[in-house]
């Protein structure tokens, strides 16, 4: 049995961390759904930047949008929403079969808004309305400024993927923002079933400390942080406050393991996938990781609800001089800057393609 099926049987959802028009047009995404147990999809500015820059598949659509007088961000979101809604339609049967638990597709607000609460909220509402699909999650970063926008979006009934989370503390803050939004819906007599996942980034931890820790700790920090966060998530799931929400029809916000592609060329491509097999979680993985997983017939042990040895491991990192709290804040800031850079690169690619296509027409 394929390891993709085994993970699904454990109760972990496999999502693809990629979207391109070629994946859609060539039927590859549909095949992943049918054959590799893929039940959702995530995107980000870097993914769209690479997709549009490295393909001519968008050229005809760019010409059409240019003819409408659009450019820049307006041009991009027309292209992105076309891809996202097509993918959402492919996953719609999964969404309905799982009673809204799965079958989600994610689209991010402009990363330039990461520290602007009001604009983030306005963008989330606008994108959700334009997508007009029940299984589209709008991605909002879990920054200090993003948290109020997350709460307000959930209260407004907009499904949210909280992105750029790097620590237990950042996760808990995002989970509480989600819960406040749901509790406000209950108080207002609204349906409390609003979908959400909280995306914890894994591999960037190990990249950040590469060469700074003893060899036995190599590639262990991201997994230890994930274990600590998973313990906190499991504790929240059984807390009286959350259970009151379940009792009136709300659903939990699931933890999503993001950035699970191995960055160390000397390590197993499935290092993070095998270590983070856990029920009622999501693993969104790059295409290469998904394909590597499909070639295997076994998975590792199930992640312990108590976090296993994470605190002992994190104590070793502290001894090695790693301040995980400071590093979590740094990684979130760097992640926001990285996505903003990809966004600006994307705008430049679109401007360049637009100029070329205008000349050719």
Number of helical segments?
A: 16
* Cα gyration radius (Å): 20 Å
Rounded to the nearest angstrom, the distance between the terminal CA atoms is: 52 Å
Q: Could you state the order of secondary-structure elements as H and E?
A: HEHHEHHHEHEHEHEHHHEHEHHH
Provide the residue-averaged pLDDT: 96
Q: What share of residues is helical?
A: 55-70%
The coarse overall form would be: globular
Q: Numbering strands along the chain, what is their spatial order in the largest sheet?
A: 2-1-8-7-6-5-4-3
Structural class computed from helices and strand pairing? alpha/beta
| Beta fraction | 5-15%
> Can you tell me the residue ranges where pLDDT is under 50 for at least 5 consecutive residues?
none
The biggest sheet amounts to: 8 strands, parallel
* Number of DSSP strand runs: 8
Short description:
The protein is 56% helix and 11% strand.
Describe the structure in your own words.
This protein has 361 residues and is α/β, with parallel strands linked by helices. It is built from 16 helices and eight strands. It has helices at 3-10, 21-25, 28-35, 45-53, 59-67, 72-97, 117-131, 146-155, 168-187, 203-209, 221-237, 240-247, 271-275, 287-294, 310-319, 324-360, and strands at 12-16, 38-41, 105-108, 136-141, 160-165, 196-201, 254-258, 281-285. The radius of gyration is 20 Å and the shape is globular. The chain starts with a helix and ends with a helix.
